[in-house]
Prior knowledge:
Layout: H1 5-37, H2 41-61, H3 66-82
Helix pairs in contact: 1-2, 2-3
Amino acid sequence: xxxxxxxxxxxxxxxxxxxxxxxxxxxxxxxxxxxxxxxxxxxxxxxxxxxxxxxxxxxxxxxxxxxxxxxxxxxxxxxxxxxxx
Length: 85
């Protein structure tokens, strides 16, 4: 257990960050599932746009690595481009 005031504050701030990071990663997974479960190409493109924006935002915040975001965006884009209109 922490004894110093600053260490106790660090524990509180780490917990807040952990919860926020967890929520962001959960949202990323949900958005990716939306793209894959879209019934037609227009819906998939709409969800793809939303997902890409959120991936860029989370990578910019440092919640996920920028290469991880790029890899996920690439994979999703390939999938949507293969769909038939």
